[in-house]
């Protein structure tokens, strides 16, 4: 189980690291994600051969007129893949929590069973003394187990936060690099048009 959970986490981390936002800017991705999910939930089953739904695609093409249908479909698939991994992650986390709860319940039932058996075997006074000592021992074991689970959960949460922070930092760097590239491209284009205009004016003179 833990291996499956680790595989899903690794796939999610690799997906977000190697293809952050599928190459889209944060602003474009957020708009796409909102429109895609909003209209996908509102439409009828998809027409055969059309992905995503026709109505959804029409709305996306209106919002992103400069992009091809192929690019829109590929980004929709990327979102579906990401959401599927997130759903797997949530399902596995719920299963992990259920297993932990079952373990605590089973341990508590075992404690109760052992206490009943001890009570039947011993005399009232001797049994009570042994029962109390045994019960305390089991309580300590339960508490120790809970403490270990709490420490493990905190460590897992810390590692998850560090992974998320690293991914977010990487995404921020990529976004800033993209913004700088566009700024430089705009400046070069303006410089080119300026020189061209000067050449035209010189030629007319």
Task: Describe the fold and architecture.
The chain has helices spanning about 1-20, 25-40, 55-65, 70-120, 125-205. By secondary structure, it is an all-alpha fold. Helix 2 packs antiparallel against helix 3 (about 55-65). The chain is elongated and about 120 Å long. Residues about 45-50 have low confidence and may be disordered.
Q: List the uncertain runs.
A: 46-52
* Class of secondary structure makeup: mainly alpha
Could you tell me how far the N terminus lies from the C terminus, measured between alpha carbons in angstroms?
79 Å
Number of E-state strands = 0
Question: Rounded to an integer, what's the Rg over CA atoms?
Answer: 30 Å
Q: In percent, how much strand structure appears in the residues?
A: under 5%
Main sheet attributes: strand count, strand direction, barrel closure:
none
Q: Could you state the order of secondary-structure elements as H and E? A: HHHHH
Q: Please count the helical segments.
A: 5
- Net shape: elongated
Average pLDDT for all residues = 80
Percentage of helical residues?
A: over 70%
Write a brief structural summary:
This protein is an all-alpha fold and 205 residues long. Helices cover 87% and strands 0% of the residues.
Label this structure with key terms.
5 helices; 205 residues; mainly alpha
């Amino acid at each position: 189980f833990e291996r499956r959970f680790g595989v899903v986490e690794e796939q999610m981390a690799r997906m977000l690291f190697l293809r952050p936002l599928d190459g889209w800017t944060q602003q474009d991705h957020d708009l796409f994600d909102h429109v895609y999910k909003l209209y996908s939930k509102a439409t009828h089953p998809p027409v055969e051969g059309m992905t995503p739904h026709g109505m959804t695609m029409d709305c996306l093409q209106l919002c992103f007129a400069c992009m091809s249908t192929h690019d829109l479909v590929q980004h929709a698939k990327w979102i579906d893949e990401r959401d599927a991994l997130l759903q797997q992650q949530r399902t596995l986390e719920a299963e992990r929590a259920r297993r932990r709860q079952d373990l605590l319940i089973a341990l508590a039932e075992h404690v109760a069973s052992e206490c009943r058996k001890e009570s039947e075997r011993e005399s009232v006074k001797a049994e009570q003394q042994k029962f109390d000592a045994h019960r305390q021992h089991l309580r300590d074991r339960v508490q120790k187990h809970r403490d270990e689970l709490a420490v493990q959960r905190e460590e897992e949460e810390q590692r998850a936060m560090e992974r998320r922070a690293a991914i977010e930092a990487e995404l921020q760097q990529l976004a800033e690099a993209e913004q700088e590239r566009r700024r430089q491209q705009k400046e070069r284009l303006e410089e080119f048009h300026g020189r061209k205009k000067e050449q035209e004016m010189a030629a007319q003179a």
